[in-house]
Design a protein that fits this description.
The protein is an alpha+beta fold. Helices cover 23% and strands 33% of the residues. It has three domains: 136 residues, Nucleoside Triphosphate Pyrophosphohydrolase (Alpha-Beta Complex); 135 residues, Nucleoside Triphosphate Pyrophosphohydrolase (Alpha-Beta Complex); 65 residues, Winged helix-like DNA-binding domain superfamily/Winged helix DNA-binding domain (Arc Repressor Mutant, subunit A). The longest helix has 18 residues.
Length: 361
């Protein structure tokens, strides 16, 4: 008796969302038998050594050119007569997206398009059932007794470049505000904390990792995001920009430093978030060790004063500043000198502690 092998496939219910409501579903027209020239969900066979989720993402991209950030499994389907080629078991996924992203037919698809859920064409295999289950799973995720707003994080990263205070911005690669500049950030996943989301989004959109983030403020104006009701929790951080290699990915087409004195138009309410971050940064100079986040491990006193002047936007009396610095921080003379340029050699110091000031890690 010959044992029949059961093939493993994947199908993806990509749903275009209008707020919390699914409006359209992405379908492909099959190029090959069975069901040639019939409409179906994107999907295909799982390759050896490949997980179903990896296969689902790959097939979706290969057949429609669509990349998705969020995707989750909704069930398995293995009725004996579901596939005329032989016994298959399909692992189905739902992938909600904002709007109707641009797609293009490729690989096993001769055509591709977004279809109104209320007016679907006849579908191949058991894909009508899979779509119904995908809709149910998506709806149950977001339907509660009381409406729930979505939650995002946005991150303000400051640095000093060419004697100016700079902020890190990304150019958005998706709607809304596609092609416009914004702060790095994104939606909080169901299985992660706010800080984990901020850390992940910062790494995905800019390549910046291993940065201490401090929570700044929450912003929740009802119409701050044209997609839906969104509350964002903002974070900020300070880094020496010279050590950062920017590598934008996922939803960002570019990532660049901009002087805060010469910014492009910002998306959403990110100008307001940036204003609050600058106010917090300036205030922290007086009661924390935050200034040392901008400096190398060994620095001159003139470098410290320069940071204060750049952030506050005003000149400071050298003698009074040195007295204030000595009363707030413990600095160690390293015994080294900074030489070079037209200036006299200057002593190099290191920061070893504060005197009743808040510590910014």
């Amino acid at each position: 008796m010959i044992k029949q092998n059961i093939a493993l496939t994947v199908d993806v219910v990509a749903l275009s969302m209008d707020g919390e409501e699914p409006r359209t579903v992405l379908l492909i027209k099959r190029k090959n038998p069975p069901f040639q020239d019939h409409w179906a969900l994107p999907g295909g066979f799982v390759d050896p050594g490949e997980s179903p989720e990896t296969a689902a993402r790959r097939e979706l991209q290969e057949e429609t050119r669509l990349k998705v950030k969020d995707i989750r499994q909704i069930g398995t389907y293995g009725e004996p007569d579901r596939d005329p080629r032989g016994q298959t078991v399909s692992v189905a996924f739902v992938a909600p997206v904002t709007g109707e992203p641009k797609v293009a037919a490729a690989d096993d698809a001769s055509d591709v398009g977004w279809f109104d859920l209320a007016n679907l064409p006849p579908l191949a295999f058991d894909h009508d059932r899979i779509i119904a289950d995908g809709l149910k799973a998506q709806t149950e995720t977001y339907r509660y007794a009381y409406p729930h707003p979505a939650v995002t994080t946005d991150i303000v990263i400051f640095s000093i470049r060419k004697d100016e205070l700079n902020v890190l911005l990304i150019k958005r690669d998706i709607a809304p505000f596609k092609g416009k500049w914004a702060l790095p950030g994104g939606f909080v996943r169901l299985d992660e904390s706010l800080e984990q989301c901020a850390t992940r989004e910062l790494a995905e959109e800019t390549g910046v990792k291993n940065v201490y983030l401090e929570q700044l403020y929450s912003f929740g104006a009802p119409k701050r995001d044209p997609r839906e009701r969104v509350i964002t929790v903002a974070y900020f951080a300070l880094i020496p920009s010279g050590k950062i290699d920017l590598k934008p990915t996922t939803d960002a087409a570019d990532a660049q430093w901009f002087p805060v004195s010469d910014l492009p138009a910002l998306s959403f309410d990110h100008d307001q978030i940036l204003d609050v971050a600058r106010e917090r940064l300036t205030a922290k100079l007086d009661y924390s060790n935050i200034v040392f986040q901008f400096l190398p491990k060994e620095f001159t006193l003139s470098q410290v004063q320069s940071i204060y002047e750049i952030i506050q936007g005003t000149e400071i009396d050298k003698r009074n500043f040195r007295k204030w610095l000595d009363s707030h921080f413990t600095l160690k003379d390293t015994g080294k000198m900074q030489r070079g340029g037209a200036h006299r050699p200057a002593k190099l110091f290191s920061h070893v502690g504060g005197k009743g000031v808040e510590t910014f890690n």
